[in-house]
Amino acid sequence: xxxxxxxxxxxxxxxxxxxxxxxxxxxxxxxxxxxxxxxxxxxxxxxxxxxxxxxxxxxxxxxxxxxxxxxxxxxxxxxxxxxxxxxxxxxxxxxxxxxxxxxxxxxxxxxxxxxxxxxxxxxxxxxxxxxxxxxxxxxxxxxxxxxxxxxxxxxxxxxxxxxxxxxxxxxxxxxxxxxxxxxxxxxxxxxxxxxxxxxxxxxxxxxxxxxxxxxxxxxxxxxxxxxxxxxxxxxxxxxxxxxxxxxxxxxxxxxxxxxxxxxxxxxxxxxxxxxxxxxxxxxxxxxxxxxxxxxxxxxxxxxxxxxxxxxxxxxxxxxxxxxxxxxxxxxxxxxxxxxxxxxxxxxxxxxxxxxxxxxxxxxxxxxxxxxxxxxxxxxxxxxxxxxxxxxxx
Length: 393
Description:
The chain is mainly alpha-helical. The protein has two domains: about 20-185, no CATH class; about 240-393, no CATH class. Helix content is about 65%, strand content about 0%.
């Protein structure tokens, strides 16, 4: 009977299948987004309509808002192709280019990252930043340094958040729909109170099951943990993403949040669970840190990238003035994707021989030091850290 070798030879892979490629992966990505989109529509539109608070057209608004993000980004990319390529300006040529660059995806993700009450003109501006500045100026699909949707989200978050929070006007969500949707987010409550207290952070919204389902205020796509889980499971089964990348990232946030909870005097698992189910951690874990263009390509690089990202998320969330933390940390880590890929590539080749061992020590040391700094700063902020430190010593 024939036996299959288990060595390192370049054996047949799924990528060698003629029906396998970027198009299939992007199609799977869109399928994985469907549960998140449908839940966002149900939570912010259908359920409110069933309660009798809005009209039928208002019920459609969340779905229209999400689809509008994809349409706008596609239109902007099409205009860019029309302006920059004078030899291929026909509708057929532009349509073919758009199909190969997956133009709608940054806009869809961008809309899911924004609150429902975001004015439409802000969505248009964010799509411009994401598509033109974040993607096309760098050379288009496969050449961008930053995640396009995240860049658009970050720019409007830093410059137009006041406008978003005072939304209103033509073509935007109605006041009734906004009132049904808006409210203080769980991380906003944490940033405002600076207390790790179940009665303050969780109870006003229900319980942890409420957070798992996603029935609390937040951006369109970030709250539905269950829907995100199903999308991520589909991508893992289809081998579009590696399971260990989101697991390491979420695990890092969980462990560090648990330690901060212990330092504060509450060693329960509710706080780390609360931390990973709020603020876009799960959405980023499945749909953003697994993105193949702006994250490391080799296995060890993905591991270190996820570790750094998890530590930075906790640092920015609990120490800085950014209650969400995920977007800022991911954009920051996009800058270091290439060095991490290079360093970990040498480590995988050289193992612990020079300079592989040195690079491994540098990356590991940076992760540990950054984690310790995060715990120290968070401890000083959320509790009397000195007694805990004395207990450890």
